[in-house]
Task: inverse folding
């Protein structure tokens, strides 16, 4: 595949070669691929399980249903968090049935076996009736890896997954200045969707769709290729720096008035947009200066952020299924998770976190204003039933079902990507390596000069 040239801009320091494997349709539609992912992919990566804010006291529990698995994370007496499969060792009943719980003992709903916060069996009915003697104190829930980063709790099924901070690299370092550990998850949305989880992963691995699917963003996010920087890391994660507080360079927004969107963003920082007529691209620098000058008095802590972090959008796409999009005032978590049995379905999740700002009672979320408090808006819906998952997310999801339908067609011969979609190519090559154990055949356009 000819990926040596093109209009898109890749970091010289963080770039990765791709082979040009065909991105076949079966990965979105077949049960074999889904089974391969359950067996080889999902156990080998860290999963974002929940928020530390839900684990304040010993015995507080978060349940994370992931595909056909269910994991529970439990706060321990010493302040640490342990994660276990949510399954009773007696005869396999699922133990915790709610999203969060707080209990000194987890009690199985079938025969009443009880476990303490450390996962140890502490009480059973008829303890003398076991051939091997009373199992209490000897039997434990099956524990898996658990670790925290910032305000988040993660879990991993395999023991040999790299330590969390190492696995997340380079993001813990890159995101340090935002001080995410204090941020509050205000928005917690999820929805059942009628497409494979990778369809939205592909979408988050490219910005080619911005002008067509999100035309409204063009007035205050510059999606032009010359200024958008893509970074690809060896571990499979990648990122995109997109210039914010500036209109797209795909059209002439510079010579006229400051366009709507950018206009309001400027006004919000006390900048008169009318003064920037004919030089609208300079609004970005003015916002940087205004934030430096007035940020602290408005309760924001911008002290450890770079100028770029103050105004631009940093999209962090972690292999395989987690996206963290940063601006100084909002952190969006977007991800898709597989359906337990159907490769043509997934669960979409959208969280928004906000920094604690003194005196601020309300924040603007993608679905409207909400109080600045943990899980102020929380809901699960079915995509397409009219419940919004956020304006921009709705736009992305709108292509999911029709793309899934198209991928089912005998007429689809495999993806044909632009240079700027190279992150999609790498994503699928890594999947081929992990799930299939080998590359697929070369794409039809591979090797063309
Ligand atoms: S299955 Fe849990 S106590 Fe029997
Ligand atoms: Fe999008």
Result:
């Amino acid at each position: 595949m000819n990926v040596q040239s093109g209009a898109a801009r890749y970091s010289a320091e963080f770039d990765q070669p791709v082979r040009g494997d065909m991105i076949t349709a079966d990965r979105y539609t077949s049960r074999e691929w889904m089974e391969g992912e359950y067996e080889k992919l999902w156990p080998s990566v860290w999963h974002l399980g929940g928020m530390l804010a839900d684990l304040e006291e010993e015995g507080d529990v978060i349940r994370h249903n992931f595909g056909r698995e269910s994991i529970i994370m439990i706060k321990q007496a010493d302040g640490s968090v342990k994660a276990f499969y949510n399954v009773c060792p007696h005869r396999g009943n699922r133990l915790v049935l709610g999203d969060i719980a707080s209990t000194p003992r987890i009690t199985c709903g079938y025969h009443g076996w009880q476990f303490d916060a450390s996962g140890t069996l502490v009480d059973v009915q008829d303890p003398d009736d076991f051939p091997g003697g009373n199992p209490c104190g000897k039997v434990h829930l099956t524990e898996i890896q658990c670790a925290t980063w910032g305000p988040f709790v993660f879990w991993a099924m395999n023991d040999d997954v790299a330590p969390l901070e190492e696995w997340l690299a380079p993001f813990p370092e890159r995101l340090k200045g935002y001080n995410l550990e204090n941020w509050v998850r205000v928005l917690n949305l999820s929805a059942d969707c009628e497409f494979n989880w990778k369809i939205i992963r592909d979408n988050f691995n490219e910005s080619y769709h911005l002008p067509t699917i999100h035309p409204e963003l063009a007035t205050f996010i510059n999606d032009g290729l010359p200024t958008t920087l893509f970074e690809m890391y060896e571990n499979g994660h990648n990122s995109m720096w997109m210039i914010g507080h500036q209109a797209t360079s795909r059209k002439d927004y510079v010579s006229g008035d400051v366009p709507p969107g950018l206009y309001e963003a400027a006004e919000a920082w006390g900048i008169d947009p009318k003064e920037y007529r004919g030089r609208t691209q300079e609004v970005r620098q003015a916002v940087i200066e205004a934030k430096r000058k007035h940020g602290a008095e408005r309760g924001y802590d911008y002290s450890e952020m770079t100028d770029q972090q103050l105004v631009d959008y940093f999209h962090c796409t972690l292999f395989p299924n987690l996206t963290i999009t940063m601006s100084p005032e909002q952190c969006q978590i977007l991800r898709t998770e597989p359906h337990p049995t159907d490769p043509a379905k997934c669960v979409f999740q959208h969280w928004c976190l906000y920094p604690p700002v003194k005196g601020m009672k309300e924040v603007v979320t993608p679905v409207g204003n909400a109080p600045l408090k943990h899980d102020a808006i929380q809901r699960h819906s079915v995509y397409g039933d009219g419940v919004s998952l956020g304006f921009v997310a709705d736009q992305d999801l709108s292509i999911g079902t029709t793309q899934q339908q198209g991928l089912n067609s005998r007429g689809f011969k495999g993806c044909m990507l632009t240079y700027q979609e190279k992150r999609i190519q790498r994503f699928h090559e890594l999947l081929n390596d992990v799930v299939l154990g080998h590359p697929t055949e070369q794409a039809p356009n591979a090797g063309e000069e």
Q: What stands out?
A: The chain has three domains: 1-41+171-245+312-449, 47-160, 249-298.
